[in-house]
User: Fold this.
Amino acid sequence: MNLNRLNEIKTDGLKLVAQSGARIIDVSREALAQRLTGLEFACGIPGSVGGALYMNAGAYGGEIKDVLESTVVVDKNGELLTLSADQLDLEYRTSNIPDNGYIVLEGTFALKEGNYDEIKAVMDDLTFKRESKQPLEYPSCGSVFKRPPGYFAGKLIQDSGLQGTQIGGAQVSQKHAGFIVNKDNATADEYIQLIRHVQTIVKEKFGVTLEREVRIIGEDLE
Ligand SMILES: Cc1cc2nc3c(=O)[nH]c(=O)nc-3n(C[C@H](O)[C@H](O)[C@H](O)COP(=O)(O)OP(=O)(O)OC[C@H]3O[C@@H](n4cnc5c(N)ncnc54)[C@H](O)[C@@H]3O)c2cc1C
Assistant:
């Protein structure tokens, strides 16, 4: 195990083992290089393997839960544990990693043999979708809200007429209403005020509670 940067990625047959500090985008690219299919969905998700397991990251119909076989973690007592994916209770953008206080060291992904050109075509298509629909030209925290059952958060926000609404430097993106972008030196407080405003208006108009996907660190801000 590479303990310097914890970012090693290696494959063994149809298994890909990635340490927690590896970027999930690089993991997806390595799968492509090895002609392994299953991780195409992750090709544009910014973040590490550790963060991706913690929140069962996903996009465009795929999620970590679909491909994770097992993980090595350190528990609160400093014990090294090898857990199967089932033991992490991976659900929509959640896992039991925070409740158990696990520190993820590596993940093993079970992939399938694929065709390089086909895998690449899927990744190119997802990259095109992401770049054309998401406001990647501005800093953001990604999707602010979870998908409420039966709805799309972005559509509800758009239909509430909130696109372009700005508090200080934080703005509900004109390009994708599910994103709040930093247009002009926004503070965390402005960002949080705008989140609350959006939640209030969507609740008033549609009776739907928007739950944050973004996590707020700092008890005074919650
Ligand atoms: C523009 C943009 C687009 C995004 N698109 C998507 C998307 O399509 N799908 C999606 O799911 N997410 C998306 N995200 C959100 C986020 O980037 C991902 O969920 C990513 O997987 C989080 O990983 P991270 O390494 O950045 O984690 P961080 O945000 O740094 O951490 C998240 C949590 O994981 C914990 N954590 C991190 N590493 C470990 C570890 N080794 N062991 C235990 N806990 C750990 C942290 O303590 C923290 O509580 C997007 C974000 C942005 C800014």
